[in-house]
């Protein structure tokens, strides 16, 4: 049987979150699906939208869990079991507050960096040995807010990750998704 890679994009399912920073994982997977002419279909048992495709001769399953970001591990565990995929063949795509907007980082086997969705996946699949494509969403205003008191900082961060990208940021995002996709293809 051919090896399959599972690419999980993190995001929140409700329409009001569609174009928010916290949904950059979903946005990236939509880009990948479009690029490879794959269509998402909802799988009730996996509680995820799933699309199957080939990327550079590698069979991939693109998955957008419908559990909300912080509970992504529930769907991730089901996806692994259903497709008989080992954790080392997972790539999780998500937002990262510590990386400047317009940049991304690919990592393997690291901690969650405080990302609740990644923590949920680590816990559910009982390992940190997964690839992560971390897409930066940090801005100057976020860096300033992070220096404030805990309560003010937490409120700003919560509102920030759930805010939509500006028009200028949307243009940068298009270039970023293309670059991130090309880098991702190299590890498949």
TrEMBL record:
Source organism superkingdom: Bacteria
Similarity comment: family membership: Belongs to the PTH family.
Subunit structure of this chain's protein: Monomer.
Keywords from the UniProt entry: Cytoplasm, Hydrolase, RNA-binding, tRNA-binding
Species whose genome carries this gene: Candidatus Yanofskybacteria bacterium RIFCSPHIGHO2_02_FULL_41_11
Record PROSITE patterns: PEPT_TRNA_HYDROL_1
Binding-site positions, tRNA: 17, 68, 70
UniProt xrefs under Pfam families: Pept_tRNA_hydro (PF01195)
Name of the gene: pth
SUPFAM superfamilies cross-referenced by the UniProt entry: Peptidyl-tRNA hydrolase-like
Residue ranges of coiled coil: none
Function: Hydrolyzes ribosome-free peptidyl-tRNAs (with 1 or more amino acids incorporated), which drop off the ribosome during protein synthesis, or as a result of ribosome stalling. Catalyzes the release of premature peptidyl moieties from peptidyl-tRNA molecules trapped in stalled 50S ribosomal subunits, and thus maintains levels of free tRNAs and 50S ribosomes.
Any single GO CC term annotated in Swiss-Prot or TrEMBL for this entry: cytoplasm
Catalytic site positions: 22 (proton acceptor)
Molecular functions per Gene Ontology: peptidyl-tRNA hydrolase activity; tRNA binding
Site (Discriminates between blocked and unblocked aminoacyl-tRNA): 12
InterPro entries found in the cross-reference section: Pept_tRNA_hydro, Pept_tRNA_hydro_CS, Pept_tRNA_hydro_sf
Catalysed conversion reaction: an N-acyl-L-alpha-aminoacyl-tRNA + H2O = an N-acyl-L-amino acid + a tRNA + H(+)
Protein name: Peptidyl-tRNA hydrolase
């Amino acid at each position: 049987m051919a090896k399959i890679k599972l690419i999980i994009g993190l995001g929140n399912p409700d329409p009001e979150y569609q174009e928010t920073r916290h949904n950059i994982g979903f946005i990236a997977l939509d880009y990948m699906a479009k690029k490879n002419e794959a269509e998402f279909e909802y799988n009730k048992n996996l509680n995820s939208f799933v699309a199957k495709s080939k990327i550079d001769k590698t069979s991939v399953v693109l998955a957008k869990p419908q559990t909300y970001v912080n509970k992504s591990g529930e769907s991730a565990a089901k996806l692994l079991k259903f497709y008989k995929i080992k954790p080392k063949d997972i790539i999780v795509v998500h937002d990262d507050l510590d990386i400047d907007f317009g940049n991304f980082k690919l990592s393997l086997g690291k901690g969650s960096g405080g990302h609740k969705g990644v923590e949920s996946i680590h816990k559910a699949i009982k390992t940190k040995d997964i690839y992560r494509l971390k897409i930066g969403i940090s801005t100057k205003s976020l860096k300033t807010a992070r220096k404030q008191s805990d309560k003010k900082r937490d409120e700003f961060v919560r509102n920030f990750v759930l805010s939509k990208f500006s028009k200028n940021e949307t243009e940068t995002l298009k270039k970023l998704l293309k670059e991130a996709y090309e880098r991702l293809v190299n590890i498949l």
